[in-house]
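Q: Hi! First time doing this. I have a protein sequence and I read that you can turn it into a structure. Is that right? Here it is:
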Amino acid sequence: MLIGQRIRQLREQKGLSQGDIEKASGLLRCYISRVEHGHTVPSLETLERFSAALDVPLYRLFYTGEDAPATPHLTPRRSLEELADESGPGGTEARFLLKLKGLVGRMVDSDRAFLLDFARKLATR
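A: Yes, that's right. Below is the predicted 3D structure, encoded as structure tokens:
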């Protein structure tokens, strides 16, 4: 399956229009159409914008299985809780993220969506 077809498939599965993707990603609707129809090949940066707009991990643009693909040769990652037990800047950041995770988890969906949209706008500055 070509990347444009996969993007279109994921977009339609989520019930999104090209206009919705345009708003979420900042990509022009005509460009989204060109990608979906195979007339242009997006860069990795653009694929990251598509995956964020579709709210899927980047690998889902290439992988069609239900479960995450096996990664037998990767070093296991430590959990956020394990990182928070460390001293130094890494531990401080992990503790902050755990606190943020708890607070965001208690928010209603509309407030969480507002916060995420606000963070996206701040990140583009």
